[in-house]
Amino acid sequence: xxxxxxxxxxxxxxxxxxxxxxxxxxxxxxxxxxxxxxxxxxxxxxxxxxxxxxxxxxxxxxxxxxxxxxxxxxxxxxxxxxxxxxxxxxxxxxxxxxxxxxxxxxxxxxxxxxxxxxxxxxxxxxxxxxxxxxxxxxxxxxxxxxxxxxxxxxxxxxxxxxxxxxxxxxxxxxxxxxxxxxxx
Length: 184
Prior knowledge:
Blueprint (H helix, E strand, L loop, with lengths): L1 E6 L2 H8 L7 E6 L5 E5 L3 E2 L6 E2 L2 E5 L2 E5 L4 E4 L4 H9 L6 E7 L4 E6 L4 E5 L8 E5 L16 E8 L2 E8 L6 H7 L4
Antiparallel strand pairs: 1-14, 2-3, 3-6, 4-5, 6-12, 7-8, 7-11, 9-10, 10-11, 12-13, 13-14
């Protein structure tokens, strides 16, 4: 696997993420505390993977909270039992908007039922979340990627949003790779 990066403004991130409006949360799962994964949209099995992923995969590796309109429903500091129970209520709920916001970019997911999932970082130097844009029908790629198995991921690096292209370089020529990285 190879990667290349492209800076994105917060406005560009939000424009890309506007394609998520109306998609439903299909799966929620957790890894080690406080890590949470939200699979949004139609589920499918990736080649070589054991689990199903959504059209959009959201990985949160920082603290988070799920807000009701005027109160906290659950957060990363709650007990595991309560977290699992309350996160399960997200399955089947449609996304109203996914927004990147703030000086140190954090993530907010507004749901049609009035709840909001929000990340926050208080123990590390940078926000820790990533959004995998798995469906090229929702997130069209530059034609230069044609014929290459690539997944773009939006995340934060050095306090700025960027898109990371993770791709199988076995079908990529050096010329195309160099061009994609902006050197040609």
